[in-house]
Amino acid sequence: MENMIKKIAILTSGGDAPGMNPAIRAVVKDALAKNIEPFLVYEGYKGLHEGKIESAKNINVDKYINRGGTFIFSARYPAFKDPAVRQEAKEQLDKLGIDALVVIGGDGSYHGAQLLHEMGVKTIALPGTIDNDITSSDFTIGYDTALNTIIENIDRIRDTMESHSRAAIVEVMGHGCGDLALYSGLATGAEVIVTNECKISPEEIGRIVKEQTEKGKNSIIVIVSEHIYENIHDVAKIVEKISGKGTRGMALEHLQRGGIPTAAERINSARMGMKAVELISEGKSGLAIGIIKGATVATPILEALKIPRTDRTEKTKKFNKLNQA
Ligand code: ADP
């Protein structure tokens, strides 16, 4: 039966990501278009528990279409693992007569979404994280913008490294997934790409930097995924000692998280947001939305959490070979 759902809420949870705002806008506007009243939950699961919920009927969501971050705020709220807390959170929705919930977040948020689904809240999850580590989608909301931000910054780093014949060891985010490192490495021609799948020692990086310098490379860029080395500055010191080339270590940190969402980001976010509302209006629940091979798809959240990551070892080797040639 069409339109049994009268009210839906949306929240953003975990690490923020550019593209969350255009996704929220799409959910709100598409709900309105389907005569469903949209509600905003502020501060993720924390705000859900505390009842920080308001109708979006009279909120101008259009102005956030080109803004990074999430205008409904995000939070980390470990208390949500407690069933009693989740029950109280569900009651906040019941009190307002809200039938369904859209959760935008990473895999941690997906666990929370699955548990709400099991408690009878109609829940749909959207992949929101710059790390691209949600395997039920080729692209997560935030990944494309973060990738472009990294590329832009590495281009800048290259300018100064080139002027002083230096090497830079640049650490990027990824939370165990090497995609940001791998593809920014390909796009910037980084001489060395290090991910969890292709770890090498600082000494080995030093030897490659030396070899590349001897081959005539003036500047060297080494991109590494986070959490591989304890201290990027110590890695730089070792590389400098072995290669004899002035080496600087730097982590791009939170600047990777911000910024204006790219065209691809806004388009993918809107498509996934609309898909969420479509499924909710059909009474569906417990699904994770993604874009796979260009198509907008839905996978049960439980399954989505179990899909193994594609092994990129060969790809990483191939890109390293290309950039070192
Ligand atoms: P992300 O969603 O970006 O992976 P987190 O792992 O920090 O970020 O998860 C975001 C939030 O999701 C947590 O702070 C918590 O509120 C909720 N969450 C995470 N894991 C669980 C779980 N196993 N059960 C219930 N809620 C969870």
UniProtKB/TrEMBL annotation:
Ranges for domain Phosphofructokinase: 7-280
Top-rank taxon, per record: Eukaryota
Reactions catalysed: beta-D-fructose 6-phosphate + ATP = beta-D-fructose 1,6-bisphosphate + ADP + H(+)
One Gene Ontology MF term: AMP binding
Location in the cell: Cytoplasm
Record EC number: 2.7.1.11
InterPro entries from the UniProt entry: ATP_PFK, ATP_PFK_prok-type, PFKA_ATP_prok, Phosphofructokinase_dom, PKF_sf
Pathway(s) it belongs to: Carbohydrate degradation; glycolysis; D-glyceraldehyde 3-phosphate and glycerone phosphate from D-glucose: step 3/4
One Gene Ontology cellular component: 6-phosphofructokinase complex
Keyword set includes Cytoplasm: yes
Required cofactor(s): Mg(2+)
Keywords tagged on the record: Allosteric enzyme, ATP-binding, Cytoplasm, Glycolysis, Kinase, Magnesium, Metal-binding, Nucleotide-binding, Transferase
Pfam families: PFK
Coiled coil: none
GO BP term, example: canonical glycolysis
EC category name: transferase
NCBIfam families linked: PFKA_ATP, PRK03202.1
Protein name: 6-phosphofructokinase
